[in-house]
């Protein structure tokens, strides 16, 4: 990445502002010794702004950057001396958003240990599979998951919240040196259609990944940021990394509640919110507070924005919405800003600086503008492969996202959905997202999902699952007629199923396998 762009972006976002020389020197030395891991980012923040509030938990507990670093170092020493954890080991972290999760993950990176971020929505059986496949040396978990971890092997040490606090309190003094190897962050893929896989995230090697994001999403040093997206998810963890780099104050709630989130945004005067799209949808279902939160950025990722949601949200909270399209494997591919979303509410935007994006056919050749093909992405933060040893198809340094999409003549990306979600009905290709976005615009509809189900005549037929707003009703034939009016006949769902809510995982993605259970 070119130096002038890096310097210009860092200056615009306040990261090159003057400071006390001794603190600036200490900050740079922390990055030199510890690199750009989460431990290095926390150390540089504590060196530059030790007394600045780093984390505010939902019950009012506040920790400064120096206090957060001290607690993480204490935990690291306790893990090393009390449990023999050492570089190259893996520990599992089964936690919701609070300072204990951050301390545990930083402690792992301080030791060169891999931290496996465990999805809080996993069942006991899935958790046992993850513990075995990832060869966990230890599992740190919140108290609420005590029953879920009962079935894990007896020789797997477990740390609940009380035990973690005791470790921090009684840890022996001692110096921590940079480990011989970087501790990797292992994120579990969403697993909406099968068992989750562990994806190894690379450690940044400089300012490049940060400036790619903050060039397009206007976050600034010392902002106050609420991270509502789960930190065990790629997007929530990316938000944590960005916040450390910016020396931001982070506001956390263990569970997402729309009214509580809006109240916290006002109380803590948050400049930014990191969320997944379904959270933004839920915010629109409660009355906006008066006064409105002073938001400058609402950054979303993790799943597609439902049709029409972006302009409706910005009509209420201002032109502050930014939509990042990416995945656990490719990190980011494109970013849509408010102007993009006003002009085309379902767009995924354009690639940020330093990112290559291509739409290719089955033979690996570029397709014309407007034509659907496979989305390939290249940037500095492509994943290092799955922990099983598998990887994803790649071509000329670009990774296959597994999604299908198209580019317009002016460079806007539109994602049509997963390649394996495409429905072939009577020989015609149908993308569920197109039908879902149309159905989501019906005023009675709270949320919509469309899947393909077996059909003896057409091979597959479309089934639409609709969750309505309280008190609303719809007639199935009226729904079909509405779709027939706007889309081709093969896009009309033959089945219209009304449900109380759509089954989603902890990151907000619809669990299509649960919907297929309606058909046995």
Determine the CATH topology of the domain at 3-211.
Rossmann fold
Q: Rough shape? A: globular
Q: State the separation between the terminal residues, measured CA to CA.
A: 52 Å
Strand content: 15-25%
Bin the helical content. Answer: 25-40%
CATH superfamily label of the domain at 3-211: ANL, N-terminal domain
What is the average of the pLDDT values?
93
| SS content category | alpha/beta
Q: Which CATH C-level class of the domain at 3-211 is it?
A: Alpha Beta
Radius of gyration: 23 Å
Number of helices: 16
Task: Name the strands of the widest sheet in spatial order.
Answer: 2-1-10-9-11-12-13-14
Low-confidence stretches: none
Protein name: Acyl-CoA synthetase
Domain AMP-dependent synthetase/ligase: 43-386
Domain AMP-binding enzyme C-terminal: 434-509
GO molecular function: medium-chain fatty acid-CoA ligase activity
